[in-house]
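Lab channel / #folding
Pinned by the channel admin:
"Please post every new chain as: sequence first, then the C-alpha cells as a reply. Keep commentary short and put observations after the output so the thread stays searchable."

First post following the new format, from NK:
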Amino acid sequence: MRLRVGDEWYRVDLVLFNRRLKCLVIIDLKIGKLTHADIGQMLLYTGYADRHWREAGENPPIGLILCEQKNDALARYTLESLPNKILASEYKMTLPDEEVLAKEIVKAKRLLSAPGIIEK
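Reply from TO:
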C-alpha cells in the first residue's frame, strides 16, 4: 500500500489483517541488518495506519520488521519502549535441513494443541 505524509510518498511492503487480534499487521521486509532507521520507518507506518486505516472496533496496528540480521541490543532498547507494538525478527534465505524442519513442525503442533491455544 502507498501512503502520503506531507509531500512524501511511502510504500508499505505488506498490510494484513489479523482476525484473532482484530488489528492491521504491517510488515516491512529488509535486506541486511536491522537499523534504527528501519524502526523509525515502521513507527511512521504504524502511526499513519492507526490514524488513517484503522476502523472502529479494531485494535491499534502491529508492525513487524523482517530483516536478514537482527541486532538484539538495538531491538531491545528501541522496540520495548515504543507506544506502538513493533517487532523485529530475522528471516532465512533457505530452509533448514529436513530433519530440523520436521522437529520444528512437531514442536509447533505440540504448542498449538496445548489447552486454551486454539478454540475448537
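NK: The two ends are 34 Å apart (CA to CA).
TO: also worth noting, The helical segments are 36-53, 72-79, 98-112.
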